[in-house]
Amino acid sequence: VPLLDPHGHAVHEPLEETIRGLNCCRACLHGTSRFIWGFALWGMLIFSLVRLYASTCFSAYKLYAKAIQGDELWDNVTLPFTLDSLNRIEEYCDEEVTCPEFAEIAEAVNSLVLPDMRKRDVRRCCPSKERVLEVCKEPPGGQAPYFLRTIVRRSFNKDIGHNGFMCTEAACRVHMESFIRNDGLIVSLFFGLMLLGCLIRMMNNYCIQCVKDATARRHHDGESYMQDRTPRSNRAKGTMMTKKEPAQCSCDIM
């Protein structure tokens, strides 16, 4: 069965060096695109888990900082913290106070009063990052929060005890880093890497197809050139055979 080009013309089989070069180029570019995709997907997964762990632990330590100011605890709150006491503090602060973005603003508005003449307790419900970091270093009563325990408490209002990855001081420090909060920028970077992998794969296929077409065209042009030269040689050979035939016949007659 002859080898056909994309246009249906019979061509010679490409050289082994050409085929080997195409396969090597395709394998390298496909491997590069797969590496970029894998790096982007795993990077996005790891970043999401680290981001969730850091933000959850920081919010848990922040709730601890709300529950204790210096050596004073909220009313009806004891150590170790119970599920009911943590929920009560969280609900109170969510209803009564909208925390300003910066600690100095919190100090400025701490003296404001609510419409019903209750003092707005911003200082207690909105601890500064420095205060939260102090609680991260030394948890109240040595009781560090747990990652899965905090998620289950918030989602299902159940306490699973001291289980599910203890929150460390490193989680607070990671959360306080500016780059970790730029979710949009980092996710866009990972999506850009995935798009780059797709473009590399598309360019790989396009370049290989171009090389195949060029090789087929070169073989097709060479075949056409040989076909153009063949009739001339055949005519010359036919003329020579025609001149020799009468002599051969005369020899036979004699």
What can you see in these coordinates?
The protein has one domain. Helix content is 69%, strand content 3%. It is built from eight helices and four strands. A hairpin with a 2-residue loop joins strand 3 (68-69) and strand 4 (72-73). Helix 1 packs across helix 5 (129-137) and helix 5 (129-137) packs antiparallel against helix 7 (169-176). The longest helix is centred in the last third of the chain and has 71 residues, at 183-253. It is rod-shaped and about 95 Å long. The chain crosses the membrane at residues 35-54, 185-203. Keywords: Membrane, Transmembrane, Transmembrane helix.
Strand content: under 5%
Cα separation of the termini: 51 Å
Structural class by SSE content: mainly alpha
Order of neighbouring strands in the sheet with most strands? 1-2
Keywords: Membrane, Transmembrane, Transmembrane helix
Transmembrane segments: 35-54, 185-203
